[in-house]
Amino acid sequence: MTFVVEKPAQIPIFIVAWLLIVKESWSFAPIGRTGGSLLMGVVTVIADTLGPEEAFEAIEYETLALLWGMMVLVEYLKDDALFDMFVNKFFIENKKLTPTRLLWLLSMSCGIMSALFTNDTMCIALTKTICYICTQRGYHPGPQMVAIAMSANIGSAATLIGNPQNAIIAALSSVQFAVFLAYSAAAMMVCMVINTFALSLWFRKDLQENTAFAAAAKEKMAESGMYGATAGSGSDDQESAPLMGGPTTDSEETEIDTEGNKICCFGPFQRSTNQKLFRYCLLASIAATLACFLADLPIGWTAAAGGVGAMLLDAVFNHRVPDRIFARVNWELLVFFSGLFITIEGLQHTMIPGQLLDYVDEVMRVDSIAGVCAFTAIITVGCNIFNNVPLVLLVGLAMSYDETDGVEIPFMESIGDADLAWILLAWVSTVAGNLTLMGSVANLIVAEEGKHYFEMSFGYYSKFGFPVTCVTLYVGVAIICGLWTITH
């Protein structure tokens, strides 16, 4: 087979884009990942690899709609203090938590919530609070930080809305949400248990009360101005106030605003009544969104409908405009993906990805044990070289040449059952991020959010993460393939 390269100008464009993505910013040109992705997307059009219309068509708008809708719903949950209530009840106010019990409760809850509300969100929501609890109670936060990062990644692999690469797969593939969930959730639950059990063994020395470490951490917190860590603050036996939202005051509970607290033409009501009704309706809206996912309605626009529905509920019950929610939505992520879609589509026009994958398509077939093992190994290595999101786009958009019929077909359809291949791609590309500290954005978020409590080094994480992830990767793949064989 002759190797043909078209649009060669796109090759250096992709290399520069990759360099800008793998590092947050370069000192000589700190444009950042988002700016770099957008820049290379524009250069792709300027270099005439894609025309303006082709560039707009390359953007997967359903993926952007899915990400935007889920971000809005999560921000409303945080805004209404529902995350705060969960953390307060199960972690801050729970006096029966030993370090090991905390590890198990944290791992399972973080994994399940990551499947519903994305892994990065849960890492941001939990890390500082859990580290604070550990410091106040004399526990080492290191094992808990590793648990948050790894559980968030494993848990997010269970659904098509758990992380950005799964959202891309939702848009590119024809896999139904319920089918994906049925196979991936089983693998997720088993691997969560394996991962947490391994954590409890590996870090057993750190999973003990360590008042000396806690005292040093409190001092460090005080120096960096962290909450609840000021000098001379209360007794060591008494925990400071919860880090997240607190209860409303009596005046807030009883205040009646004859204009601001009406619901349509009814009222006025106490502010607490409006807030309570909004909370119930918000939860109902989220449940309805998830039900629509299971009913196989268009996943992106269903998520977007859930987001705008939450805005409407907030306006009706609380008379608030959504400006504060818009301000907290990660617009940079949406811009980053838009530029990346264009750049990757430009690379596909060089014909290089499809031709390279043609060399390994027989090796990576998902209808044999050897092929599945090779598929897992190749995708894992690729994710740790290119990052999981670009790799999923490269593989998902690649076209393979069928020599029998003399036509091009999607690569994912050339290696066996396409639905199984997509489910395996989602699992491997997500869990592979647990190999090293640098393997996923979720890991880096945990390290950054918890650095004032404990500096989770590359070695501290990776000595555990690498061997255990090799196990959970293949155990999960075996479960998915085993269930697929039984049901087909």
From TrEMBL:
It is found in: Cell membrane. InterPro entries: Cit_transptr-like_dom (IPR004680). The keyword Cytoplasm does not apply. Keywords: Cell membrane, Membrane, Transmembrane, Transmembrane helix, Transport. The keyword Glycosyltransferase does not apply. PANTHER family: TRANSPORTER ARSB-RELATED (PTHR43302). Pfam families: CitMHS. It is a multi-pass membrane protein. This is Low silicon 2-like protein. GO terms for cellular component: plasma membrane. The gene is Lsi2-like. The chain crosses the membrane at residues 180-203, 277-295, 329-349, 369-399, 420-446, 466-486. One of its GO terms (biological process) is transmembrane transport. Residues 227-254 are annotated as: Disordered. Residues 25-432 form the Citrate transporter-like domain.
